Automatic annotation (TrEMBL):
BP GO terms, sorted: protein neddylation
Gene Ontology CC entries for this record: ubiquitin ligase complex
Cleaved signal peptide residues: none
Function description: Neddylation of cullins play an essential role in the regulation of SCF-type complexes activity.
Pfam families referenced in this protein's UniProt entry, alphabetically: Cullin_binding (PF03556)
Region (Disordered): 1-35
Residues of the DCUN1 domain: 36-227
Molecular function GO terms recorded: cullin family protein binding; ubiquitin conjugating enzyme binding; ubiquitin-like protein binding
Name of the protein: Defective in cullin neddylation protein
Superkingdom to which the source organism belongs: Eukaryota
Amino acid sequence: MPRASKRKAPPPTSPSLASCDVVSKRAATGKGRPRKDVDKIDSLFESYANQSLNMIDPTGIEALCSDLKVDHTDVRILMLAWKMRAAKQGYFSKDEWQRGLKDLHADTIPKLKKALPGLEKELTTASKFEDFYAFAFQYCLTEERQKSVDIETVCELLNLVLGPRYQLQVDLLIKYLKVQTEYRALNMDQWMHFYRFCNEISFPDLKNYDSDQAWPVIFDNFVEWVRDKQS
């Protein structure tokens, strides 16, 4: 039986191994999605996170807002939560943080601050804004199996999210919600129908409002209330 040669054979150069080498080199040289950027995003998360929860909690969000030089009630913070697809109001998980900041190409506070106007611009697209509008309501469902949001919170949310676009309609609906006594909260269907109302119904004359078009009853009552005030 012949003795094995001491000379080592050259490693195989199959396409699959060559491909792996390319991927490794890209990661090392910063091409593609550099690991360094991911590490910076994670490091930024740790600087605001509650270590016992492994989440950014309300205290961490306040610190984040302070560093971003925005108020915690600023609609752009809600937009940031939307971008992260945050599941729990006042909290950002590590996965949510990574998702949002990677999408925004932001791994530092200056970059994140610079990205905020871009979020506002993104929401000028009708489909994106409608998705954000729906998210804003869902984000306020803080209890398990909660289906509706109290009137006081709804009024604040309407003013924050929809006020800049439809201030007259929002102002009048808020006034109505505060004086009526039939509803203590609104559900998702009513919330989304008000967005449809703002888009479809001429205001303030309400000429094209038709109660036979299956609007939620609250809007029939609202329109009647507005017409009474106008007469």
